[in-house]
Amino acid sequence: LADVVPMAPEDPLFGLMAAYRKDKFEKKVDLGIGAYRDNNAKPWVLPVVKKADDILHDDPDVNHEYLPIAGLQAFTSASQKLVLGPDSPAIKENRVCSLQTISGTGAVHLGALFLRKFYNKQNNPTVFFSSPTWANHNQIFTNVNLPIKTYPYFSPTTKGLNFEGMIEAIESAPEGSIILLHACAHNPTGVDPTQDQWKKIASVIHSKNHFPFFDCAYQGFASGDLSKDAWAIRYFVEQGFELCIAQSYAKNFGLYGERAGCFHFVTSPASDASHAAERIRSQLAILQRSEISNPPAYGARIASIILNDEQLFAEWEDNLRTMSGRIIDMRKALREKLEEMGTPGTWNHITDQIGMFSFTGLSEKQVLKIREESHVYMTKNGRISMAGLNTNNVDYFAKAVDKVVRE
Ligand code: PMP
């Protein structure tokens, strides 16, 4: 066997991180990985997470037993409320079943596995995701043998949404396809549909009997407002869709390495509500058991302490505003500097886009050049992680962009 296994290509993002670490240049800038950094370019433990950690540490009843297959119940039920809204009729009518997963990646995977096993099997449905999308979507759905295709999303001319292209592709997708949607703060473009555009997307998905699959990795991190960032999901649920949601707590709690996440399946009010959710839950439990047996406890306990305590929840919202606010400030500073220097091109997209990332519009050639000449690290598609910018390096970065654009 060992003789026939070919060498796999290195993960581009993790390769970029390694190259950054090796670079000895003092002013090097890391705009690669999508993880929050404070104004000193350091990882940030949210103060509210620190508090929850202390509470957990002092709890004499905490032990290291297994969690149930579906995870920590206090965590999954609080997660439902967070994403769907505390007064969601879907929750009240027992139409939601939720399992704790290995962060957002695990939730996407569990959903993919479940859909492969049960959804529209006779037609071998295709999963459509945006072009571009988070690179892992491609691999996760391919691993479970679901055919994949893309719909247009980003317009290189406006550096905004190619709405017509997106709608046309969803409209012409075979009836009953799976449509993957980023709930907010689209990765990698930072471009989201407006609420009116979401309404149109919902109506086309409905008319073609497609299945919406929401990937929600940045709730609260995008705008600082948890409800606003969940608007699209809640709208679809209100419209009576059967849908699923992959929810990650990596970014909004800064719990990247703890792998806290949740998978939710929401049944439509038209189906035999609570029984449908019960049946789906039982099947998801079987899949979960064979994949990971049961999920990891620590991150879910931290999140659960915060989500279930009014005061800590309010502090968390405050911490979220600190992160999203700093990123928004950096967007403004970068745009201002580029415009002040008269850097060729338009730069309004830097402040129009939201969330962790910005699609700068720099070409692959320019990205490689900026790395070589200025020691700035970003992915080849011109995406920058806004959190890598701070008041100490934003001018340096703007000048590096100016230089490479003029060359
Ligand atoms: N979906 C999207 C769109 C993401 O950007 C990410 C994080 N990079 C994830 C899912 C999942 O991340 P995690 O597994 O760390 O929660």
Counting copies of identical and different chains, the oligomeric state is single chain
Low-confidence parts, pLDDT < 50 over ≥5 residues?
none
Strand order of the largest sheet: 2-10-9-8-7-3-4
Number of strands: 13
Task: Assess the beta-strand content as a share of residues.
Answer: 5-15%
In short:
With 407 residues, this protein is α/β, with parallel strands linked by helices. It contains 16 helices and 13 strands.
Molecular structure report:
The chain is of the alpha/beta class. The chain folds into two domains: 12-44 and 324-406, Aspartate Aminotransferase, domain 1 (Alpha-Beta Complex), CATH 3.90.1150.10; 68-308, 3-Layer(aba) Sandwich (Aspartate Aminotransferase, domain 2). Helix content is 46%, strand content 14%. The chain is built from 16 helices and 13 strands. It has helices at 12-22, 47-58, 73-84, 89-92, 103-118, 135-143, 163-172, 195-207, 226-229, 231-238, 273-291, 298-307, 310-341, 348-352, 364-374, 394-406, and strands at residues 29-30, 96-102, 127-131, 148-152, 154-155, 160-161, 178-182, 211-216, 243-248, 260-266, 357-359, 376-377, 383-385. It has a seven-stranded mixed sheet with strand order 2-10-9-8-7-3-4, sandwiched between helices. Strands 1-12 form a two-stranded parallel ribbon. Strand 3 (127-131), helix 6 (135-143) and strand 4 (148-152) form a beta-alpha-beta unit. Helix 2 crosses helix 12. It is globular. The termini are far apart. Bound molecules: 4'-deoxy-4'-aminopyridoxal-5'-phosphate. 4'-deoxy-4'-aminopyridoxal-5'-phosphate binds next to helix 5. 4'-deoxy-4'-aminopyridoxal-5'-phosphate is lined by residues 34, 103-105, 134, 182, 187, 215, 217, 248, 250, 261. GO terms for molecular function: L-aspartate:2-oxoglutarate aminotransferase activity; pyridoxal phosphate binding. It comes from Coniosporium apollinis (strain CBS 100218) (Rock-inhabiting black yeast). Residues 27-400 form the Aminotransferase class I/classII large domain.
